[in-house]
Design goal:
With 149 residues, the chain is mostly helical. It has a domain of 86 residues: lambda repressor-like DNA-binding domains (434 Repressor (Amino-terminal Domain), Orthogonal Bundle), CATH 1.10.260.40. Helix content is 55%, strand content 0%. It has 7 helices and no strands. The radius of gyration is 18 Å and the shape is globular. The termini are far apart.
Length: 149
């Protein structure tokens, strides 16, 4: 992985904060246009912030946190420890961001919370470089369950 530039770092931070904003907004079951109104912004602002097309100002972070019931620091949580150390950071490509959005939507569309947890653990296992992928293929969920609950 190559060393990132300041512009790429800024974009990566904007994408990270935007992702955290989108996740929290969706968990609260708020539409982006409604949140625009709640924080006193122009229509389309939340969409731009979530996609990383626009940087989030400190005042916006405070208002968003207040409306979503979190501290402003929430949006920066889970940033890798070496993110700001001048080291190499992952810079997501545009197509990856769209793919991630689709995956998150599909994940939350699974109504069965136990099944969602199983999917989460399977994906987490696949992301671990030391994991044995055969463990995923050999996963046995036990007796068949109804998935339309």
């Amino acid at each position: 992985m190559r060393k990132s530039t300041p512009v790429e770092e800024r974009r990566a931070v904007s994408l990270h904060v935007g992702k955290r904003l989108r996740d929290k907004r969706r968990r609260r079951r708020l539409k982006a246009d409604k949140l625009d109104v709640m924080i006193g912004e122009c229509p389309g602002t939340i969409d731009k912030l979530e996609s990383g097309a626009r940087d989030i100002a400190p005042g916006q972070l405070i208002r968003l946190g207040r409306e979503l019931g979190v501290e402003a620091a929430y949006f920066f949580q889970r940033i890798p420890e070496d993110f700001f150390s001048g080291g190499k950071i992952p810079v997501p490509r545009k197509e990856m961001v769209k793919e991630t959005e689709k995956f998150i939507e599909a994940y939350y569309a699974v109504a069965d919370s136990d099944l969602r947890k199983e999917v989460y653990h399977m994906v987490k296992l696949l992301c671990d470089p030391g994991a044995d992928p055969r463990m995923v293929r050999s996963y046995d969920p036990g007796p068949a369950r109804r998935r339309d609950r």
